[in-house]
Amino acid sequence: MTGLLANEIASIGGTDVRAAYRVVYFCASKEVAYKVHLHSRLANRICRVLKEIPAQSPTIIFDKAKKIRFHELFSERQAISIHVVAANDGSKIPNHLIGSKLREAINDCFQHHLEITPNQSARDAAIGITGYFHNKRLLVSVDTSFEGLHKRGFRVAGHPAPLSETLAAALLAVCEYDGTMSFFDPMCGSGTIAVEAAQIATHRASQIHRKKGGFGFEYLHDFDSRLWQNIQDQARAAEVPAKVKIFASDIEPQFVEIAQKTITKAQLETVVQLETKDFFNTEKPAERGLLLANIPYGLRMTGKDVSAEFLRTIGDHLKNHFKGWRCGILAPASSPLKEIGLKPQKKVPFMNGDFPVKLIIFDIY
Ligand SMILES: C[S@@+](CC[C@H](N)C(=O)[O-])C[C@H]1O[C@@H](n2cnc3c(N)ncnc32)[C@H](O)[C@@H]1O
Q1: How confident is the model at residue 303 (pLDDT cuts 50, 70, 90)?
Q2: What's the pLDDT tens digit per position in 64-103?
Q3: For residue 169, what is the DSSP state?
């Protein structure tokens, strides 16, 4: 996933892009940074690194962090939330203690430079300070995304197992979907993957729905509102009518209803064609295209593992009815995937939340 994200960031204009454990580091001008926030489909959060400091003890963290010029970054009136995460090499200092040292350091900085005490509340905070502990060092950043970037603004609740939008986008990226061919999700549930595909087909920026004040960077002293407005205007002007149709269906009428509401909320009703149908009664809706299905599994959907029989019937149906199509199936990594009976072009592991899954891709000839 970080490799895909690194490619996406580089394609938007990020430089010195480096993928690491669950993070991608990059450099960007303010313009590119704003564009990454607006256009990235794969990033969950974006943080601006302020400083990396040694972190062998709480005292060292305080001494080093208080030298960060927080007062030049944001106003003392802003509520600040502090979030500490430790990489897999772990920290012996508890996260809450690292967090309280960071808050003390912010207080000290405002007192020292401006002789004022900053807002002590964390409620409804627009400023998020993140401490990422790794290898006895602490990377101190400000979260410029505000809300998680997986939020696309049109999720309708009600499906027991919706995919995250960023995972849906990653599946499409692995299948190299660029919006120029037909797309079909025959087990669409709430419609997450189909809507993501429709956004790609219409060149819609993933975060264009966010209102004024929707990003953390808008609360920083160096926010350039004119530049931000121009970038959003350019993104709106770059939207195009889809040249292909996006198809989606599900066997359960109540899920199709949720998908319909989602598609309407996303204003993609003219792009996505939806119906209630059993996958095993579907035919390819165009000569060529991409089929992607997140098949039912696990406690929230079926209460059981994916059976060999189910995978076999899926494979047979793809073989007999989807010639000329690229097909991707997302299933638990532990399921007997060989039973599909088709030779995979690619197998890509992902985590669906805490659950290991695999995307297997077949070109059907
Ligand atoms: C894991 S969910 C898909 C969730 C979806 N990706 C989302 O983001 O909401 C699997 C879906 O497959 C549907 N399904 C199960 N058997 C089916 C069949 N034979 N034909 C069509 N859909 C089926 C279920 O109703 C369920 O909505």
Answers
A1: low
A2: 999 999 999 999 999 999 999 987 766 688 999 999 999 9
A3: H
- The sign one gets for the Cα dihedral 209, 22, 196, 168 is negative
The residue behind tokens 């912010």 is: 106
Amino acid type, 130: T
DSSP 69-120: -GGGTS-TTS-EEEEEEE-TT--SS-HHHHHHHHHHHHHHHHHHHHS-PPP-
2-12 helix and 30-39 helix, angle to the nearest 10 degrees: 130
Question: Does this model's pTM top 0.70?
Answer: yes
Domains (range + CATH), the chain: 1-44 (no CATH), 47-143 (3.30.2130.30), 165-205+216-363 (3.40.50.150)
- Of the candidates 277, 41, 77, 287, the residue with the CA atom closest to the CA atom of residue 166: 41
Ligand 1: nearest atom to the Cα of 258: 9
Q: How far apart are CA 356 and CA 351, in angstroms?
A: 5
pLDDT score, position 300? 64
pLDDT digit string (tens) for 257-293? 999 999 999 999 999 999 999 999 999 999 999 999 9
Separation of alpha carbons 92 and 69, rounded Å: 27
Of all protein residues, the one whose alpha carbon is nearest to atom 5 of ligand 1 is: 189
Give me ligand 1 centre to Cα 110, in Å. Answer: 53
Mean pLDDT within 215-242: 98
DSSP reduced 3-state for 240: coil
Residue 279 CA: which ligand 1 atom is closest? 20
pLDDT band at 295 (very low <50, low <70, confident <90, very high): very high
Query: pLDDT for 100-126, tens place per residue?
Result: 999 999 999 999 999 999 998 989 899
CA of 334 to the centre of ligand 1 (A): 19
For the stretch 164-177, pLDDT in tens is: 999 999 999 999 99
Mapped onto helix, strand or coil, the DSSP state of residue 123 is: coil
CA of 196 to the centre of ligand 1 (A): 16
Are 212 and 223 in contact, with CB atoms under 8 Å apart? no
